[in-house]
Design brief:
Blueprint: H1 2-24, E1 28-36, E2 54-65, E3 71-76, E4 82-86, E5 98-107, E6 116-127, E7 131-136, E8 162-171, E9 181-188, E10 196-200, E11 211-213, E12 219-228, H2 230-246
Antiparallel strand pairs: 1-2, 1-5, 2-4, 3-12, 5-10, 5-11, 6-7, 6-9, 6-12, 8-9
Helix pairs in contact: 1-2
Length: 247
């Protein structure tokens, strides 16, 4: 009877932990773009260069809920706000119509301290002339290859905001569409909501300094899903339950 009761209690704890994990996993990250105004003439997806000012698009204006579901982010260059970030020519205005997807800005607006895993898929630049241009769905690359985005700690602008996990690479276990996506693993050093990650395309091994069209009738979109690292959250969930039981 004691063994049976123990098993029942364990199953109850695991089940309750799942609820707590789901609640704890619903952290939120701010998502925006960094666009470098290089004036490139390369085709979309080509190497657009690394010279020119960087402007933020829709700064912290969109959010990713870390609940393990795919969520689409779309940035309309004709209507999204523009904020100067870096470089002498950055002025809060998109100058010209061509440049690069310099980085995705990921801000810790909800103070998440657990290790985080993101998956990115189907990066699309839509223009009036060409329609939807798929830059990459990460298909056809070997596992762990860096495509567009460098590892999280690569940028000196934000490496000091991070600790622990520092990985990015193609994940061939699945994606939003198809058989691949791009996995990024990182951890913010504390719960300061000002901490952010510059996930840059600078000199990446594949699709570096990714050329895009940012004319007023163009847009850029991609899909992302994210979760806090499961083992950590499971421990947090069980710990929370044990604290409740002690009370």
């Amino acid at each position: 009877m004691n063994v049976f009761k123990g098993m029942v209690l364990l199953l109850l704890i695991i089940g309750m932990a799942g609820v707590v994990v789901q609640e704890a996993a619903a952290g939120v990250l701010g998502i925006s773009l960094g666009i470098r105004e290089t004036g490139t003439t390369e085709p979309i997806g080509g190497n657009g260069g690394a010279s020119g000012g960087i402007e933020w698009i829709d700064l912290d204006g969109q959010s990713l809920t870390l609940d393990g579901t795919w969520q689409q982010f779309t940035f309309d260059f004709g209507s999204a706000g523009v904020t100067a970030f870096a470089g002498g020519t950055a002025n809060g205005v998109l100058d010209g119509t061509r440049g690069t997807l310099e980085h995705i800005r990921i801000r810790n607006i909800d103070g998440v301290t657990a290790p985080i895993t993101l998956w990115i898929d189907d990066v699309v630049n839509t223009t009036a002339a060409a329609g939807d241009v798929l830059i990459t769905g990460f298909e056809g690359y070997d596992a762990d290859q860096e495509v567009i985005f460098r590892h999280p700690g690569f940028s000196g602008s934000t490496s000091g905001n991070l600790t622990g996990s520092n990985y990015s690479g193609v994940d061939i276990s699945g994606g939003y569409a198809g058989d691949a996506s791009y996995r990024v693993e990182f951890q913010f050093m504390d719960d300061d909501a000002a901490r952010w990650l510059r996930l840059t395309s600078y000199a990446a091994p594949n699709l570096p300094n990714t050329a895009i069209d940012f004319a007023s009738d163009s847009s850029l979109s991609f899909w992302v899903k994210g979760v806090p690292e499961p083992a950590t959250m499971l421990l947090l969930g069980v710990g929370a339950i044990m604290l409740r039981r002690r009370r």
